[in-house]
Amino acid sequence: MASEDKAQRVRRMFSEIAPRYDLLNRLLSLGVDLSWRKRAVALALERQPRRILDLATGTGDLALLLKERAPEAQVVGADFAPPMLALARRKAEAQGLKVEFLEADALALPFPEASFDAVTLAFGFRNFADYEKALSEIHRVLTPGGRLVLLEFPPPPKGAFGLVYRLYFGKLLPFIGGVVSGNFGAYRYLPESVEAFPPPEALKALMEGVGFKVRYELLTFGVAAIHVGDKV
Ligand SMILES: C[S@@+](CC[C@H](N)C(=O)[O-])C[C@H]1O[C@@H](n2cnc3c(N)ncnc32)[C@H](O)[C@@H]1O
């Protein structure tokens, strides 16, 4: 699929599922995504960043958690799907948290070099049409010594657990997601995009290729992974 097609398709898809996105996240991960997000936030705040960008922020869960844990930091959430951003703004207001949410494409970030001390990216990277371009953009907007924290679903692990997980992710999840959101295509896309995603070592190499010093950890038997890239 051409890059432009993928971007348009992804943008339309997330715009369509936005109203049910949070509910389905909690439901389909059985609430486990919250513990993954907390770990990502702890890693992002390790070096006490003053300016943080939550990229592909969606409905803003990670951005809001960052602001809650580091009230003194300036947190910006960016996404290219306006309906997701509208929900994020509503949540920030309801929670009394001051986070700026703005429309931006991860492949062409509207920020000058060295604008942020940390960038977080949860379940967004997989959707990007050009991984290297996105990583270069993130690297550009980070300050020297700045940190990227990337939370994603690697391809399912091997063995018996992987088999069960594939059954859940490939069959049950698209069905529940389709029924609840009314968009079967979006929840069929999820397991497809996960299978096509680079395994943790390959992602590490991609990040190193644009100049990050990288380590990663696997969460919940390898269902999720967090890559930490420091700009050296
Ligand atoms: C699965 S959601 C993740 C949202 C949020 N980070 C979370 O953890 O719930 C993926 C988000 O990435 C956004 N996205 C995908 N490609 C993008 C791009 N090129 N630029 C900006 N946002 C993008 C989508 O609009 C969507 O809101």
UniProtKB/TrEMBL annotation:
UniProt GO BP:
menaquinone biosynthetic process; methylation
**Pathway of action:** Quinol/quinone metabolism; menaquinone biosynthesis; menaquinol from 1,4-dihydroxy-2-naphthoate: step 2/2
The protein's annotated catalytic reaction(s) are: a 2-demethylmenaquinol + S-adenosyl-L-methionine = a menaquinol + S-adenosyl-L-homocysteine + H(+)
Q: Any signal peptide, and if so, which residues?
A: none
- Enzyme Commission identifier(s): 2.1.1.163
The record's section on PROSITE patterns has: SAM_MT_UBIE, UBIE_1
Q: Which domain of life is it from?
A: Bacteria
- Gene3D superfamilies given in the database record: Vaccinia Virus protein VP39
Per the entry, what this protein does is: Methyltransferase required for the conversion of demethylmenaquinol (DMKH2) to menaquinol (MKH2).
Q: Which HAMAP family match?
A: MenG_UbiE_methyltr (MF_01813)
What is the similarity comment for this entry? Answer: Belongs to the class I-like SAM-binding methyltransferase superfamily. MenG/UbiE family.
- Full protein name: Demethylmenaquinone methyltransferase
- Gene source species: Thermus oshimai JL-2
Q: State the encoding gene.
A: menG
